Amino acid sequence: MFPWLLLALSICAHPGTAVPPRHMDSVLDILDALESPARGGSPGAAAALGRALGVCSAPGCRAVLGESPGPPERPPALTAGQWRLLTELLRPGPAAPALGAVLAPDGSAVALGPLLAGIEAGLRSAGLGRPLPTLDPPADPLLAVTITEALGTSFLLAQGGGRNATALGPGGCWDDVENPQNYTLRGPPSPVPDAVAIGAMDGAVLGARLARGPLPVAELLRGYYGTRNGSGAGRPPSSYRRRSFGALAGQGRLEKEVAAVLELLRTLSPTSELLRDVGTQEVAAVAQRAAREFSERYVECPAIVPRCLWGARPYRGTPALLQPPLGSVFLHHTLEPSRPCQTFGACARAMRDMQRFHQDTRGWDDIGYSFVVGSDGYLYEGRGWRWVGAHTKGYNTQGFGVGIVGDFTATLPDPDTLALVRDELLPCAVRFGHIRPDFTLRGHRQLGHTDCPGNALFQEIQSWPGFQGTPVAQGLG
């Protein structure tokens, strides 16, 4: 008998043993089962189970939430497959941090560990379970169990790890966004890869919400993330995580709390040894750098969905390389699709459609734009920062082409989408050396015989920093 047939028969014979996809929907199913009153569940069941499975392995987190009560047995409410998924997500191990991530409906990879730690801290702050301890030296317990301990220790280790040591990132890619099973990091892991940073921000934001009053965790997460890669209408709240986390812990507060948690770690084992020869001024410098770089990467600058995540075809041929910093940014509207995309699923589909049209109909090597902006709160990588695009004929080597999904002849993109380009993308492109500080911004119509980027959008960008109003060629309308 064929091996694949034996496997299929074994799964059919024992359906509960199949491991669900590594998707937030699977986590919601697990939480529904654990919190069901009919099965003896409660809102704190998942968080307590997570700690028993080892969510809180770091000394600072244990000081806040307490020691693990020991390895638990599988709750009767969970299938064998659900139990295996949960244990793999919460015990990824330092050698395989990617195993702790799930795909959220907004396209983000979210580490479950810091998310559940923040949820438990929030529930206990609201009076559900044992009160949180008062830390000495004082530190914010919610931020300690989600982000500041991981951030402080990561930058402390990187400081002594040589020139190539990294403290943040990288991101990664899923094998299949419809049935995610494997998440592969796109480079050497740091102690805080992107999925951990995102899980930590979500844990802090949701923990703060629960601290104001407990509610079922599955209900909270379903409202925050949505379901099924954004099948619902409109942006999910999770796509605003950078704004929400920034309001909760701006760079100044984050710096203060990283320094505070490092002082707390001086009193705990085994981190007291790590900090033995580190003075107060050095702690302050580590905290300042950690807060600044974290805020720049995860709060102030927009998230970019990589090609592998939206399902890009390979580039045809060999891409020509840009020579940054470049002097220009050229703004476009896509026209087709004519409607803005507001979910990860819709925006990824729009990217695939545009790439197929550009390659198969126009005969280009790849999608033409450098980046595409969805109304879901994300940038989508086209040819990116390194490759010459095919967006503004005659000027492709001189600047980046940014397309906003939609037809903006008569209407504008929503204010959040405009702000993402104007207030986040452009300043961050300057900050990281992709474009010059004295860059010029132009609409496509100024450089060719076209209506692009639409009358309404072209009128809007004339008030933006860097806009150069002298047209090279007039638009059509």
Structure overview:
With 477 residues, this protein is α/β, with parallel strands linked by helices. It has helices at 3-13, 24-35, 45-52, 59-65, 80-90, 112-125, 141-159, 194-211, 217-225, 241-248, 251-265, 271-274, 280-300, 307-310, 344-361, 415-431, 455-461; strands at 101-103, 109-111, 172-174, 183-185, 304-305, 326-333, 371-373, 379-381, 399-404, 435-443. A hairpin with an 8-residue loop joins strand 3 and strand 4. Helix 7 runs antiparallel to helix 8. The protein starts with a helix and ends in a 16-residue tail after the last helix. Residues 1-15 and 472-477 have low confidence and may be disordered.
What is the gist of this entry?
The protein has 477 residues and is α/β, with parallel strands linked by helices.
List the topology elements:
Layout: H1 3-13, H2 24-35, H3 45-52, H4 59-65, H5 80-90, E1 101-103, E2 109-111, H6 112-125, H7 141-159, E3 172-174, E4 183-185, H8 194-211, H9 217-225, H10 241-248, H11 251-265, H12 271-274, H13 280-300, E5 304-305, H14 307-310, E6 326-333, H15 344-361, E7 371-373, E8 379-381, E9 399-404, H16 415-431, E10 435-443, H17 455-461
Parallel strand pairs: 5-8, 6-9, 6-10, 7-9
Antiparallel strand pairs: 1-2, 3-4, 7-8
DSSP strand tally: 10
Task: Give the termini distance in whole angstroms.
Answer: 68 Å
Assembly classification: single chain
Q: In this structure, how is the largest beta sheet organized?
A: 6 strands, mixed
Q: Classify the beta-strand content into a percent band.
A: 5-15%
How are the strands of the largest sheet arranged?
Answer: 5-8-7-9-6-10
Mean pLDDT over all positions: 90
Shape: globular
Q: Which blocks of ≥5 consecutive residues have pLDDT under 50?
A: 1-15, 472-477
Return Rg in Å.
24 Å
Structural class by helix and strand composition:
alpha/beta
Helix content: 40-55%
Q: Give the topology string: H per helix, E per strand.
A: HHHHHEEHHEEHHHHHHEHEHEEEHEH
